[in-house]
Amino acid sequence: MLARFIIGLVQMVVLFAFGWLLFRITLGTHPWALLLPAATISFAAAAFGLVIACIARTRDAVLPIGAVAAMALSAVGGCWWPIGFEPSWMRTAALWLPTTWTMRAFNDLMIRGLQPSSALWPAAITFGLGLVYLIVGILGSSRLFE
After folding, report:
1. For residue 111, what are the contacts with CB-CB under 8 A and spacing of at least 6?
2. Is 28 left (phi over 0), alpha (psi -120 to 50) or beta?
3. Could you tell me the mean pLDDT of each successive run of 10 residues in the chain, 146 residues long?
4. Which terminus of the chain has a lower count of CB atoms within 10 Å, N or C?
5. Contacts for 98 with CB less than 8 Å, ≥ 6 apart
6. How far is CA 44 from the centre of its chain?
7. CB 102 within 8 A of CB 37
């Protein structure tokens, strides 16, 4: 899981760097502050990967299940369009997804130009959801080895 966390974090840093270099996207007034939400979503994604590994019946099933789950979490969580465009039931469901809180932190830092402290609460919620995924994944994986 540590390897997946590091890979995810490095991918986020590379994506932001290329976005800034090639497309001149703004990284806000405190670009270093993007590391906190990037780290927490990388942790949550790695922990969620453990859950997916417990759900999949075979090794070959992990990739399709993970891809569908990633797309759904991204869409509902506000990575594809603003959450305000979603129906109210979907906005309520989105509050339980780490992508929602990470996008809130990124938007606050990059678009709204808020202070780094604005990312603390969304990052804490993302981390908390990652802990839930980790616990579920550990409990699920222990079931596999009984």
Report:
1. 26, 28
2. left
3. 95 97 96 98 95 86 89 91 93 95 96 96 98 94 69
4. C
5. 40, 41, 44, 45, 48, 73, 77, 125, 126, 129, 130
6. 6
7. yes
Give the span between the Cα atoms of 106 and 98, in whole angstroms.
12
Please report the pLDDT score of residue 145 as a whole number: 64
Closest CA to 137 of 49, 7, 40, 42: 49
How far is the C-alpha of 113 from the C-alpha of 146, rounded, in Å? 51
What's at 80, amino acid-wise?
Answer: W
Q: Please check whether residue 113 is in contact with residue 29, taking contact to mean a CB–CB distance below 8 angstroms.
A: yes
